[in-house]
Write a structure and sequence with these properties.
31 helices, alpha/beta, two-stranded antiparallel sheet, single chain, 671 residues
């Protein structure tokens, strides 16, 4: 079996960057067993026998959040050969709090002291050797973003794995806390050994009153009584509660170490720069308008200035390949129906979606730059006040932010919310955030009806989703989800230049996912749509698709959408296939209109929609129930099919109501 190495650290300390440095792009993404917290792992470059597991960013090993539970369970049950604890050298005092807890696990540990380049540039310094001696474990200075110190880090890891020795020092306490921990350790020594848990860690957790630890050790009533007496004595002697006593003990030790090992003349340049920038970007009144302005620029560059020429180039390439294959099929005298299936079905359906690949990649380039720079964390902070008005906290914005990429991981990310009320309410509202799968739909309609105003159309659609989420939140907090949101505490990382490697890797992952979906779900959907629009109920090949199976099904549904301005059976059919994957809306309309290029598709769409009904159609696609994968995620997280169905019904009704208002009010002004 491969040797597991755990990578642990606080949030925003460069953990993902280090993980990418050590594994490259050869990584696997899944979920930890039993929970929907994302798990990344991959073989370490140059050491294929070692598998690096990227644990969620946490601040302690107390099991209050899903991330803390996952990290704790992993290191205790999977028994990694070593832990790489990445520490932000610019904020070493706070980061070492987790380090002391990790060391109590008794697992060989190496500290990767990250961002040392920033410490040096600010004129500050850290005595690394002295720090290592105080902690009793190797400390290696690195700069993950610049790929500096990585080989030295791996050498240190290999040495501690080879020795297999736990940290040389795990006892940081003194006074009353020391007495409490060591007294409890004597009481539970045999049970901790039988359970395979480190004695120091078990005793410390029992001082905290950790319920999972009590259950694991199967403590007797007599033991619980004695432990309770020891803890109460400690609390009375220190005039504080148990958790504060442990925190004070750790921070006193950290302060003593830093006093001897850290020479700090001033804040780092990055921290000072961040404070100045935040005076503007997190301004009480300007924060949200600035965010919307930045997104408008992103959409303008993506859909007009840079994206449009790249999309035209991609479309030309697809048309060239399609024409070449079509000529070969004709020369080979392939049957007419098979030519139609391949060219009008597969190539038209898949090709129409693939032509939007440059736009997808470009948008995620900009979003990656904003996220890696530290700006998106500020957006969550700025949104906290707004979200509190609708009954949520800024923490809920994190899943919603993920929802701009894909609803499935966004819904799964609600597991990080400690309040059940906040979690369920966020699951209902998150799909209103426009996911990337809808971008091809926006691009298709904008290209046909709003070519000169695509950026404005895009920002209006995103704002529509957010406004509906706000209004829905106000409704839900007064009815189904009564109560108050939990407090929101979030660290704002310093602004930093994004890593080229990290951004490129993010773009590659999104492009790969998009292409995979195009050649699986979209491929199958295109074939099914082609079949249903090419045959009647007697399975006779039809000349006119209005006589097809699909037309008869679509015609039954299409009257529902008359008040929204579009009653063409092709539009309603596209919305239905969009439930498999939102990109299927584009492939379906391409197949049904028989368009061979983006230009032909734009012309065909003008026979189905007017500009007003096209915008109404867009508003509906933004808000109506997400794809079946997102529905399945909702069902799993909400705990029942009924709740997921009611959520999907609410989202679709909201979509219908908004599209109805847009078309009917727009008709009054436009005649």
């Amino acid at each position: 079996m491969s040797n597991l190495i755990a990578l642990a650290g606080n949030q925003n300390c460069g953990k993902t960057t280090l993980f990418n440095c050590l594994t490259g792009s050869n990584q696997h993404v899944g979920n930890f067993p039993g929970v929907t917290v994302e798990k990344k792992e991959g073989p370490i470059k140059g050491h294929k026998d070692f598998i690096l597991v990227d644990l969620p960013g946490i601040y302690s090993l107390s099991p209050y959040t899903s991330e803390e539970v996952v990290t704790r369970d992993f290191v205790l049950k999977e028994h990694p050969k070593a832990i790489i604890n990445i520490v932000d050298a610019t904020n070493i005092e706070r980061n070492l709090y987790l380090s002391l807890q990790l060391m109590e696990l008794g697992i060989p540990t190496v500290i990767a002291l990250n961002m040392m380049d920033e410490v040096k540039a600010s004129g500050n310094s850290i005595h690394v050797k002295q720090l290592s001696e105080h902690l009793g474990i190797p400390v290696v200075p690195i700069s993950a973003s610049k790929n500096e110190g990585i080989s030295e880090l791996m050498n240190a890891v290999l040495k501690v794995v080879e020795r297999g020795a736990p940290p040389a020092k795990m006892d940081f306490c003194q006074g009353e806390v020391h007495i409490a921990i060591h007294s409890i350790a004597h009481i539970v020594e045999q049970q901790a050994k039988s359970a395979g848990y480190p004695l120091r860690f078990a005793a410390t957790k029992l001082v905290e009153g950790d319920q999972p630890m009590m259950e694991v050790l199967s403590l007797t009533e007599e033991q619980l009584h004695i432990i309770g007496h020891i803890v109460r004595h400690m609390e009375r002697a220190l005039n504080t509660d148990r958790e504060a006593a442990l925190a004070d003990m750790r921070y006193r030790y950290i302060e003593d170490i830093c006093r001897q090992c850290v020479i700090k003349h001033q804040e780092t340049r990055e921290q000072m720069r961040s404070e100045k920038i935040d005076r503007v970007l997190t301004h009480k009144y300007l924060g949200i308008p600035i965010f919307l302005g930045i997104m408008l620029v992103v959409f303008w560059l993506t859909f007009s200035v840079i994206g449009a020429p790249l999309q035209d180039l991609m479309d030309s390439g697809i048309q060239w390949v399609t024409g070449l294959v079509s000529s070969l099929l004709v020369q080979a005298n392939v049957s007419h129906w098979l030519q139609s299936l391949l060219i009008d079905g597969v190539f038209a359906g898949v090709g129409s979606v693939l032509s939007f690949l440059p736009i997808i990649v470009l948008l995620f380039l900009f979003l990656s730059l904003l996220e890696d720079s530290g700006y998106m964390a500020r957006v969550a902070f700025v949104m906290d006040k707004l979200l509190r008005k609708i009954g949520l906290s800024g923490r809920s914005f994190v899943p919603m932010l993920i929802g701009f990429g894909c609803s499935v991981p966004a819904i799964m990310a609600t597991r990080t919310l400690s309040s059940e009320r906040d979690r369920k309410m966020t699951i209902v509202l998150t799909p209103f955030m426009s996911c990337s799968a809808k971008l091809p739909i926006y691009g298709m309609i904008s290209m046909a009806f709003f070519p000169d105003h695509s950026a404005l159309v895009m920002i209006s659609l995103y704002i529509t989703g957010m406004v509906v989420a706000v209004l829905s939140g106000l409704l839900l907090k007064s009815t189904i989800f009564k109560g108050k949101p939990v407090p929101f505490v979030m660290e704002l990382p310093a602004y930093r230049l994004p890593s080229v490697h990290s951004v490129a890797l993010h773009m590659w992952e999104k492009a790969k996912d998009f292409i995979r979906k195009a050649f699986t779900i979209i491929f199958i959907a295109a074939i099914v749509v082609w079949f249903l629009q090419s045959f009647d109920w007697s399975l006779n090949l039809v000349e006119d698709s209005t006589n097809s199976i699909l037309a008869s099904i679509g015609s039954v549904i299409s009257p529902i959408f008359i008040p929204l301005g579009f009653n063409d059976w092709r539009a309603s059919t596209a919305l239905i296939t969009g439930l498999t994957a939102k990109e299927s809306v584009v492939s379906t309309l391409t197949v049904l209109t028989g368009a061979a290029s983006d230009a032909q598709l734009s012309t065909a769409l003008q026979s189905i929609f007017t500009p007003l009904s096209a915008f109404s159609f867009l508003a509906f696609t933004v808000l109506y129930m997400p794809c079946v994968a997102a529905f399945a995620a909702s069902r799993r997280e909400l705990g029942s099919t009924r709740s997921a169905l009611l959520t999907a019904l609410y989202q679709t009704c909201a979509a219908y109501a908004v599209a109805l208002v847009i078309f009917q009010v727009g008709s009054l002004f436009l005649g």
